[in-house]
Amino acid sequence: MEQPSFKSWPESAARLVAVAAGRAAADLVIQGGKVVNVHTREILDGWQVAIADGRFAYVGPDANHCIGDQTEVIDAGGQYLIPGLCDAHMHIESGMLTPAEFARAVIPHGTTSMFTDPHEIANVLGLEGVKLMHDESMMQPVNIFTQMPSCAPSAPGLEITGYEITPEDVAEAMNWPGIIGLGEMMNFPGVVNADPKMLAEIAATQNAGKTVGGHYASPDLGPAFHAYAAGGPADDHEGTCESDAIARVRQGMRSMMRLGSAWYDIETQITAVTEKGLDPRNFILCTDDCHSGTLVNDGHMNRVLRHAIDCGCDPLVALQMATINTATHFGLERELGSIAPGRRADVILTDDLTRLSVNRVIARGQTVAEAGQITVDCPHLDWPAHARDTVHLGKTLTGEDFEIAAPEGANSVRAKVIGVVENQAPTKALTRDLSVLDGLVQTDETQDVCQIALVERHRATGDVVNGLVSGFEYKGRMAIASTVAHDSHHMIVVGTSREDMALAANHLGKIGGGITVFKDGKELASVELPVAGLMSDAPAKEVAAKADAIVEAMAACGCTLNNAYMQHSLLALVVIPELRISDLGLVDVTRFELTNLIEDF
After folding, report:
1. Cα-based angle 456, 116, 425 (whole degrees, multiple of 5)
2. Is residue 37 very low, low, confident or very high in pLDDT (cuts 50, 70, 90)?
3. Best label site of 129, 182, 529, 564, fewest CB within 10 Å?
């Protein structure tokens, strides 16, 4: 039969009441299952569900009175019915996919609601880029809500981005139909110091009755943290330990615990619930950043849910953290996040609440995936040509552009080095003694120190800022370059060979953006990301296969880090301590100021 159209609650209210009362027939009835009620943490064996106009009309012990001649009836065969999963904080661009292809990738994993912050494209294309992401998101068969980016640039004065987001932009976006709130407020020093621009963005959001996202990336839980909480952010996902989670919920914030491709912050925080016994309704699960390889090979929110359970969380409590808690946080408890009358009919059929096999996914009353395969179309937006022409280097780069000059007369130097921390977003501010040859600072394989460079790519200035990084364990002559460089999204190049660094950077300029690995002067692997230099509109499996080849190429260069590419892409994120690189220089994020690369010689 033809799938029914999805309607708003006011449009469908009269019919929902009639179906529940038995005066009208449902579009779909699911029988023979066990309904998981996330409001009460109960498993209701034998309960049945009736759906009309894409919403739940009846949830109870017997839905036979809702069945008519045209009603589709599904026998759940003893499976559990759980609400569709919600990702409370994420960046679609991190999947290297457009919204349509991201939706296509995650729907079979049971994700039916996403709360996305497109601040990556905001840094490249400004408000127009946000609107393009919003519009394609609104076309999808699942719920993709957009948080208006708050910080582009993320740290004014420490970086220059392609575009700047203003309070006027935020106020305008609050009127768009898919905007659910303000994206993560990364400029936490600005909030702490009552910066008028940051407070104006928060005020515009609160005046619209919408939710302000948080991002407090500091271990300082003293007065600065309390000032940030007073500034209005309603949640935070930057916690990395139990005390972080507890501090946030004690201030009335929701603690968002993330499991992304490279961020493993659930295990160290969920003990606030499993051991300390805090109220779990104030804790939420999210991914933040998942690349396409993770989505295709491991899953999405179902992966996060399994991980939380493996960390000792009761399955029903974990399920609340991935459904109703998220809906409540964004003011959508009456709209989604549970199997209850009036809500959007987003439901998963699974035979295992612990491993969460996703056998069928229903979104807005329509079967959208079955047995791991998507069964609906995910429409694409016609992206304008200028959105595919965003990598402007200004010149052909050479090895000389990546030279680090030593102070005159120096035989060695003491230099600041960015220290990568496996599976975490923060870096360490390291110092290393390095040799000098022909007036140039040398990398040191024995100390695991190689070069990092930020290549300006928005305004064709030809500028290159050079620094040093440790933790990748690269060997031999190699380079990896990426136009995904949170959040400014200039180009990040890491390598042991200046000539290979130039080759890699020029290659990305030629193909319009993406990721590439060069070794001994030859290309090992590349992922083309033509949309804003951040995304591909190719199918997720194709992008994931190329992303897997990048991982293999990095390993061939000696790298053993888990999801090292995600670490690479965050080396320019100047709002997370301790040391980062920007187009203006090396940034000490503990002090929020530019700092010198060379300390002593």
Report:
1. 55
2. very high
3. 564
What is the pLDDT at residue 329? 98
Burial of 28-49, coded b for 16+ CB within 10 Å and e otherwise, reads: bbbbebbbbbbeeeebbeebbb
Q: Residue 263 — pLDDT band, cuts 50, 70, 90? A: confident
SS (H, E, C) 28-88: EEEECCEEEECCCCEEEECCEEEEECCEEEEEECCCHHHCCCCCEEEECCCCEEEECEEEE
pLDDT in tens, 111-160: 999 999 999 999 999 999 999 999 999 999 999 999 999 999 988 999 99
Report the DSSP pairing between strands 235-236 and 283-286: unpaired
Q: Name the pTM for this structure.
A: 0.93
Nearest to 81 by CA among 339, 342, 304: 339
Band (424; pLDDT cuts 50, 70, 90): confident
- Other CB atoms within a 10 A radius of the CB of residue 273 amount to 27
**CA distances, 89 to each of 166, 205, 339, 381 (Å):** 22, 17, 22, 23
Chain-wide mean pLDDT for the chain?
A: 96
CA distance 43 to 155: 47
For the record, the structure tokens of 587 come out as 């940034």
Q: What is the C-alpha to C-alpha distance for residues 116 and 441, in angstroms, rounded to an integer?
A: 42
> What DSSP string runs through 291-331?
-HHHHHHT-SHHHHHHHHHHTT--HHHHHHHTTHHHHHHTT
Q: Which two tokens stand for residue 95?
A: 């999947």
- Residue 60: CB atoms within 10 Å: 15
**Residue in 576, 239, 258, 221 with CA at minimum distance from that of residue 428:** 576
Whole-angstrom distance, CA of residue 450 vs CA of residue 222: 36
Match 């295992």 to its residue by tokens.
352
pLDDT at 33 over 90: yes
Kindly state the tokens that stand for 200: 């104006």
Give 479's pLDDT tier (boundaries 50, 70, 90).
very high
- For the cut 60, the answer to whether the pLDDT of residue 1 exceeds it is no
Using DSSP, how many helices (H) and how many strands (E) does the chain show?
16, 32
Bridge partners, 349 (sequence order): 81, 360
Report the C-alpha gap between 253 and 236 in whole angstroms: 7
**What is the distance between the alpha carbons of residues 174 and 413, in angstroms, rounded to a whole number?**
51
Structure tokens at 422: 């496996």
Q: What percent of the chain has pLDDT over 90?
A: 94
**280, 320, 285: which is closest to 303 by C-alpha?**
285
* Beta pairing, strands 111-116 & 85-90: parallel
CA 90 to mean position of chain CA atoms:
3
Answer yes or no: are the C-beta atoms of 381 and 135 closer than 8 Å.
yes
**10 Å Cβ neighbour count for 69?**
5
Contact 73, 67 (CB under 8 A): yes
CA nearest to 566, candidates 421, 392, 450, 390:
421
Please write the tens of the pLDDT for every residue from 150-198: 999 988 999 999 999 999 999 999 999 999 999 999 999 999 999 999 9
Classified as helix, coil or strand, 478 is strand
Q: CA 249, CA 271: separation in Å to the nearest integer?
A: 13
In angstroms, the CA 381 to CA 99 distance is 9
